[in-house]
Structures are given as structure tokens and as C-alpha cells.
Amino acid sequence: MRAADAADCFWSRSRAVALAPTPGGDDADGCYSGNAVSVDGRMVAFYSAHRNDRWWQPVTTAESHDNGHTWAKRPHLLIPEPPAGTTMYRDPYVWRQDGRWRMLVGSALDDGRAAAQLYESDDLEHWTYRGPFHSSDAAEGPIGWECPQYATFGDHGVLILSDWTPQGGPSHTTVVTGREKDGRFEAAASPVPLDHGPDFYAPALLRVPGEDRWLGLGLGSPGRSLGT
């Protein structure tokens, strides 16, 4: 996982590798997708700890106290086990809303549906599992959601979900609009494709500081010839 910085949210420069797998550790085979937040003079990166001998990717963190130049991993996993009934679990996304920290984690369920799992915390350290924030229709077939992202606009919200299948892997990116009620996201309309994929996949959202604007970043699959 490589670090980058930018002065204006548009032009960035790449820095040294921020996080690398720890041999024999919980992330021995990969420091995978997540995001970072800034609070109280420190940066906290949430990421998926991958091991080839474990089907789920637990959530863990690393902290930086020098604006992202160096990082220290936590000694133990933050969320070591997935919720019951999941068959895929990875990709935390953390944001602050209404005075509390919230986290979505992508997953697939054992009944063939996809779900974005919700957690909440007061201090970024102790997290309470709240259940599925949103799940797919069983009629859509066996899928999972990777890299769930959430943006709010007043009392409305937008979920961006990257559809994954057990057979084909990354598929495409979907947008769901609606609003939250009692800790669950209720869709106002049917999901629509943001992109048909798989070249544009797993976009990330970043809120512009102090403004109700969001920056979206997309990931292109390496080694593919991208059309226009």
C-alpha cells in the first residue's frame, strides 16, 4: 500500500510504501483495501488484513503521527472475526457522521445476497456491530459487495458498491440512492450501474474538508487496455 499526498485534492505525488505485509503476521499476504481518517493530529488507516490461509480479511489499523510519512501497525486485529452467516468479508470504509464514527465492510452472505455491514464507534478503537446496513435482492444471484462507500447529502444518501461474484471476481460498480432509517439504508429506487466494469472498479469517496462536496477516485484494473 503506497502513500500519496495532494495540496488541492486533484494533483498528487506518490510517496514511499506506507504499509507492507508483515511476514508471519495477520496481514502476511497483503495489506488490502480500506481508507484513512484524520483526527486529533494523527491519521488512522483502516485496511483489510489478508492471509492466503483465511477466507475473510479482518479489519485492522495503522497510525501515523507525521502526516502519513511513517506508519505503526496495531499489535492485534481491530475486528478479527466476520459476522455469522458471511462467506466473504473485506474492505472497511470509515467516516464521521452525527458525532460518531461509522464503518461499512463489504461482504457476501450464505444465502447468496451481498451486504454492507455496519459498525459504530465513539473513539475509533471500540466498535459495535449494528448488522447489515443494506443488502441485495436474492433474485440478483450469488454476489458480494467489495469496497462499499457512502455519501450523505442532507437526509439523502448514496451507496457505491462494487459487485463481485465467486466465479468471476470483480464485475462492475453499482449506485443505490435512498435514505437511512433506524440504522438501515432504504433504497428509493432500483440500483443503477455507475460503470459496467471491470476496468473502472472499487471507486473511493473523499469528502472535501469543510464543504458538502465529495471527490470520487476510481481504480483501473492493471494490465488492461482501457477504451474510451
Could you describe the 3D structure shown?
With 228 residues, the chain is mostly beta strands. Helix content is 0%, strand content 58%. The chain contains no helices and 17 strands. The protein has strands at residues 2-6, 12-17, 30-39, 42-50, 59-64, 72-73, 86-97, 100-109, 114-121, 127-135, 144-153, 156-165, 169-181, 184-187, 192-195, 200-207, 214-220. The strands form five sheets. Strands 11, 12, 13, 14 and 15 form a five-stranded antiparallel beta sheet that branches. A four-stranded antiparallel beta sheet has the order 3-4-5-6, with no helix packed on it. Strands 7-8-9-10 form a four-stranded antiparallel beta sheet, with no helix packed on it. The radius of gyration is 17 Å and the shape is globular. 32% of the residues are buried. The model is unreliable at 224-228 (pLDDT under 50).
Record the SSE blueprint.
Layout: E1 2-6, E2 12-17, E3 30-39, E4 42-50, E5 59-64, E6 72-73, E7 86-97, E8 100-109, E9 114-121, E10 127-135, E11 144-153, E12 156-165, E13 169-181, E14 184-187, E15 192-195, E16 200-207, E17 214-220
Antiparallel strand pairs: 1-2, 3-4, 4-5, 5-6, 7-8, 8-9, 9-10, 11-12, 12-13, 13-14, 13-15, 16-17
Order of helices and strands: EEEEEEEEEEEEEEEEE
User: What is the tally of beta strands?
Assistant: 17
Number of helices: 0
What profile does the largest beta sheet have? Answer: 5 strands, antiparallel
Structural class: mainly beta
- N-end to C-end Cα span: 28 Å
Low-confidence stretches: 224-228
